[in-house]
Amino acid sequence: MPWFRAIEEFSDTKNVPESKRDDDPDQEVLPKVIEKTILPKITALVKSVWDPLSTSQTKNLVQLCNNIFAKQVLSKNERSRAKEDLMNMVVLRMKKSIEEDVFIPLYPKSTVEDKSSLCSKFQERRFWSAVKLLSNVLLWDGIVREDTIRDLGLSKLLNRYLLLNLLNTPPGPDNIEKCNKVVACLPERWFQDLKSESTLPELLNFCQHLLQYIKVLLCKIFLSFLFNSEETKEVLLLLVKVKALHVVEDFIEEYKLEHLKSMIGE
């Protein structure tokens, strides 16, 4: 905006001796314009135009806020009411989006096992839409208060919606991909200053899911080794020889060992 650049040049301190900068009333022009004109305009746009689900809009808005706030130099005890109003509106819009735009249906596992089914495709679209919103919410880290961002992104979005889907997604590449994307959204600085060996309280349930996932994988590896061992086959053959066929059939069905069904006829 040409008029804004003109005000910036007018308020530029480069040509003012350092000893006179604090007393120069011209230095107050740009902060006043930002407070009275720019920030209220941005707040109105956030209220009526900004879509928190749009990554491009969110990135542009975050960059704009960073640029404007950098130019809004305040004294130590001075508060910017317009900035507070803007941040409150940003939080309100994100909260509204989480409450109204996020919907991840839970279907029976048998319904979504077929990845080509309409239910499975719809559930996946809704999940990734929520992940996109999580990523956009966390872009505000460093601008909006950290406790507010963690409440919106982790408590309200991750734990309330995304985690339920993860818990109902069978172990496998799809689950890993989803977990990877969630972790990729998290700001690294949140974990740099943790003094204890524990993670953030809001991530405890997510960490429990990852731990349970590892246990399931280890169990599968162990069972795969066990069920393909010669000792297992020998024991099953003993059961076949004593005609405990129902025991063998139940065992094979329970652990999905169809490749051993031929033993029943031996």
3D structure, described in words:
GO terms for molecular function: DNA binding. Keywords: Nucleus. One of its GO terms (cellular component) is nucleus. Residues 1-161 form the GCF C-terminal domain. The protein is mostly helical. It contains 12 helices and no strands. Among the domains are: 1-101, no CATH class; 228-265, no CATH class. It has helices at residues 2-11, 29-48, 55-71, 81-101, 109-112, 118-138, 146-167, 173-185, 189-192, 204-227, 230-241, 245-254. The radius of gyration is 29 Å and the shape is elongated. The model has no long low-confidence stretch (mean pLDDT 83).
Topology:
Layout: H1 2-11, H2 29-48, H3 55-71, H4 81-101, H5 109-112, H6 118-138, H7 146-167, H8 173-185, H9 189-192, H10 204-227, H11 230-241, H12 245-254
Helix pairs in contact: 2-4, 4-7, 6-7, 6-8
GO molecular function, one term: DNA binding
Organism: Anhinga rufa
Keywords: Nucleus
| Structure class | mainly alpha
> What is the β-strand count?
0
Q: What is the end-to-end distance?
A: 86 Å
**Which series of helices and strands comes N to C?**
HHHHHHHHHHHH
How large is the count of helical segments?
Answer: 12
- Which bin fits the share of residues in helices? 55-70%
Q: What would the keywords be for this entry?
A:
mainly alpha, 266 residues, 0% strand, 12 helices
Q: What's the short version?
A:
This protein has helices at 2-11, 29-48, 55-71, 81-101, 109-112, 118-138, 146-167, 173-185, 189-192, 204-227, 230-241, 245-254.
